Amino acid sequence: MAEDIFLEPTTLWDFPKQSYGQNPKGDYKFNGVTPAGVIYNLIKRYTKEGDLIVDPMCGSGTTIDVCKEENRRVIGYDIFPTRQDIIQNDSRKIPLEDNSIDMVFIDSPYGDNIKYSENPNCIGKISCEKDEFYKELEKVAIEIKRILKKDKVVCWVIGDHWRKNSGFVPVGIKVYQMLEKHFKPVDVICLTRRNQTSNTLLWKQRAIKYNFYLRGHKYLFIMKKA
């Protein structure tokens, strides 16, 4: 593992969407797409070939593509599947046995800031300003804990929220506090948001003029089932 040039040794990760390998992984146009290098780093550190990884909110399928290329078994679920190898399912009720999974990766909504799906039951249609949003995400966390094997990890990506009307909402901190009730912390990674739509001169000028900060990062919480 020490000789793998694609493994990131620090807690600051800055990956382009296609950050290793030759084959495309997921859909780079998908809202909130996870860079393939993030998932690659996690499965190389926390799993071995043949292990079973689950992504309960699989989006455009990046987790599936990375796992297959790295000889991991994988199940991808989504409430609004975008391709045939993603199983339609609500992440608040995962149809798997207790203590059966070697790692879970999840890049969840962090509010209703973008359109994640057409499904009316999507958690991404709930505002992060409401307690309901965190209660629904906790249902997902409880299901993840149930299916994970002892001493295995969940890797959870989440971002904060800022809007003119609501101001700053520390979504990441609130989700971390929720996860800590169910899991043991392993580490916190800062993911650079390289391809955010606000990364333009116009938005930078607005941020300075109106005295707010553009969201430049997401959190990656790595938690272990004790």
Q: How would you portray this structure in words?
A:
It is built from five helices and ten strands. Helix content is 24%, strand content 24%. The strands form two sheets. An eight-stranded mixed β-sheet has the order 1-9-10-6-5-2-3-4, sandwiched between helices. A two-stranded antiparallel sheet has the order 7-8. With 226 residues, the protein is α/β, with parallel strands linked by helices. The longest helix has 17 residues. The chain is globular. It has a single domain, classed as Rossmann fold, CATH 3.40.50.
Question: Summed up, what is this model?
Answer:
This protein has 226 residues and is an alpha/beta fold.
List the defining traits of the structure above.
Rossmann fold, alpha/beta, 5 helices, two-stranded antiparallel sheet, 226 residues
Question: SSE layout and pairings?
Answer:
Layout: E1 12-13, H1 36-46, E2 52-55, H2 62-69, E3 73-78, E4 87-88, E5 101-107, H3 131-147, E6 148-158, E7 161-163, E8 167-169, H4 171-180, E9 184-192, H5 201-209, E10 217-224
Parallel strand pairs: 1-9, 2-3, 2-5, 3-4, 5-6
Antiparallel strand pairs: 6-10, 7-8, 9-10
- CATH topology-level fold name: Rossmann fold
Helix tally equals: 5
CATH homologous superfamily grouping: Vaccinia Virus protein VP39
Mean pLDDT: 90
Low-confidence stretches: none
